[in-house]
Design a protein that fits this description.
Shape: flat
Protein name: Sec-independent protein translocase protein TatB
Number of strands: 0
InterPro entries: TatA/B/E (IPR003369), TatB (IPR018448)
Helix content: 55-70%
Radius of gyration: 45 Å
Keywords: Cell inner membrane, Cell membrane, Membrane, Protein transport, Translocation, Transmembrane, Transmembrane helix, Transport
Distance between the termini: 95 Å
Pfam family, one: TatA_B_E
Biased composition (Polar residues): 84-94
Structural class: mainly alpha
Largest sheet: none
Strand content: under 5%
């Protein structure tokens, strides 16, 4: 902005006092002050908007760089996985051909049968009985079957009238 020193401002004030007059000078100075303040706020808003747009452009550039880096990593990983899969399948085919012998077809590769599920045949009642009664009581494990109404009656506070139903 324009650099005004004290001597320049004093000269402008003296000229304004002579031209405008002492009666109107305070009102004119106040109006000029308001206009200068508005101009400064406008310039600050424009600077802030320019800075925001510059930051937005930088963020968009960073986003595009990050996306390209992510795409490069993805393609690298895909190619590595594809290479590993192909080498593994080739080794598997060679190993299965060696197991089946030279007369076997390469299309009839030996595949192991999936494991059959077998129930562990563990008796959970025996395990539950191995826990001490004091531990079950402390942890709140139910030891006896009880209906919902009996449970409510058990935890119902006693009536103060003394008459039981």
């Amino acid at each position: 902005m324009i650099d005004f020193g004290f001597d320049k401002i004093a000269l402008i004030g003296a000229v304004a006092l002579i031209v405008i007059g002492p009666e109107k000078l305070p009102r004119v100075a106040r109006t000029v002050g308001h206009l200068v303040g508005k101009a400064q706020r406008y310039v600050a808003e424009v600077k802030a908007e320019v800075n925001r747009s510059i930051e937005l452009e930088e963020l968009q550039k960073m986003k595009s760089q990050f996306e390209t880096a992510a795409r490069d990593v993805e393609t690298t990983v895909r190619t590595e996985v594809h290479d590993a899969t192909s080498s593994l399948s080739q080794s598997w085919n060679e190993a299965s051909a060696a197991l089946n012998g030279p007369a076997a077809d390469s299309h009839d590769a030996w595949t192991p049968a999936p494991p059959v599920y077998q129930h562990p045949r563990k008796n959970w009642r025996i395990k539950r009985g191995a826990v001490p009664a004091w531990y079950k009581q402390r942890e709140g494990v139910r030891r006896h079957v009880q209906s919902g109404a009996a449970r409510v009656a058990r935890f119902r506070p006693p009536t103060s009238g003394g008459a039981a139903r």
